[in-house]
Amino acid sequence: LLLLTSFSLFGEYILRAFNISLEALRIAGGVLLMIIAAEMLLSKEKPEEVRRGDFAVVPIATPLIVGPGTMSTLIIYSRVYGPLVTLAGSYIAFAMAYPMLRYSYLVLRYLGPSVLQGLAKFMSIIVASIAVELLISGLRGLTLL
C-alpha cells in the first residue's frame, strides 16, 4: 500500500524531477506492460501448489502487483484523473487482489491448474490491450500518430 500511495501522490513530482514527459512515460509503461503480457502469454510454467500459510508467495507477488508497469500506470492515471481518484482506484484494486492472494490455495484447489492457466492467458491479452492503449496514447501525445 505504501508503494501504491507514493506513486499515486508523488508520481508527478518524480516525472518533473527527472524531466520525463507524460507521453514518454506512457510509451515506456506500454512497452513494459507488453513485455509482462508476452511473458504471461508465452509462459509454459504450470502453477505450483499453494498451501495455506505459504508466505513464499508474498515476495513473488508484491513486485508483480506494484512493479514497474503498475508504477508507471499510477503516475499516468494520477496526472489524467487526479491523485485522489487514482489512489481510491488502486486501493479498491488492492482490496480485490488481497483475498485472491490470501486464499489462492482454495482458488487453485477448486478451479484447478488448467482453468487458472486459461485465465492467465486471457488476462495476458487484457494486459497487452492496455499496453497498446498506453503506446497509442503516448504516440498521439507526441503527434506521431
Structure commentary:
Helix 1 crosses helix 5, helix 2 crosses helix 4 and helix 2 runs antiparallel to helix 6. The longest helix has 38 residues. This protein has 145 residues and is mostly helical. The chain starts with a helix and ends with a helix. About 4% of the residues have low confidence. The chain is globular and about 45 Å long. It contains six helices and no strands. The chain has one domain.
List the helices and strands and how they pair.
Layout: H1 2-17, H2 22-42, H3 57-65, H4 68-81, H5 83-102, H6 104-141
Structural class: mainly alpha
Radius of gyration from the CA trace?
17 Å
Shape descriptor: globular
Number of H/I helices: 6
- Helix-strand pattern, N to C? HHHHHH
Overall strand count: 0
End-to-end Cα distance, whole Å, is 36 Å
Largest sheet: none
Average pLDDT works out at 82
Number of spatially distinct domains? 1
Helicity range of the residues?
over 70%
List segments where confidence is low: pLDDT < 50 over at least 5 consecutive residues.
55-60
Strand content: under 5%
